[in-house]
């Protein structure tokens, strides 16, 4: 009834391993519940990462900082503490194609999702297409709420394709809804 899957799996082994008396029963129950909690936390972590829609599944230890010496490794490691999310701050990665912007954004996003922070990754072109479709179906406000619900939204490759005035307006509405309440990571290859 309680869906204690890990506990159900471990119980026969625990029962074989220990004699049960009243003193040991408490230890057995503590061990089983601790294992259940660890199992649920790991499963929730994996589900969060999966539903976050990351383009890149790598970890920060796979990023070659020596390939991009202009990137401040200490600053990136500080961003991985996720303090910027508590402050509803935003991150902008700007640089030429192939410099690692998307990978860094995904690494930070994966860390957030691993810590059970609602996170979503979307390519800017896909985001705009989704907003256009929602506007056409008279559901733009619902779609904006969908993207606003995430504590961390990662929008990849802004400016890779040109935006119409209407597209820019919808994008602005989304950013305005998130402003000072949620964190957003943006990657772009367009200079200021």
Short description:
With about 190 residues, this protein is an alpha/beta fold. The chain has eight helices and four strands.
The secondary structure category is: alpha/beta
Helix content: 40-55%
Largest sheet, spatial ordering of strands = 1-4-3-2
User: Which value, in Å, is the CA radius of gyration?
Assistant: 22 Å
Low-confidence stretches: none
Major sheet: size, sense and barrel closure?
Answer: 4 strands, parallel
Break the fold down into its secondary structure elements and pairings:
Layout: H1 5-17, H2 22-51, H3 73-79, H4 83-86, E1 91-94, H5 101-114, E2 119-123, H6 124-136, H7 140-148, E3 152-158, H8 165-178, E4 183-188
Parallel strand pairs: 1-4, 2-3, 3-4
Could you walk me through the main structural features you see in this protein, from its secondary elements to its overall organization?
This protein is of the alpha/beta class and 192 residues long. Helix content is 54%, strand content 11%. The protein contains 8 helices and 4 strands. It has helices at 5-17, 22-51, 73-79, 83-86, 101-114, 124-136, 140-148, 165-178, and strands spanning 91-94, 119-123, 152-158, 183-188. Strands 1-4-3-2 form a 4-stranded parallel sheet. The longest helix has 30 residues, at 22-51. The termini are far apart. The mean pLDDT is 91.
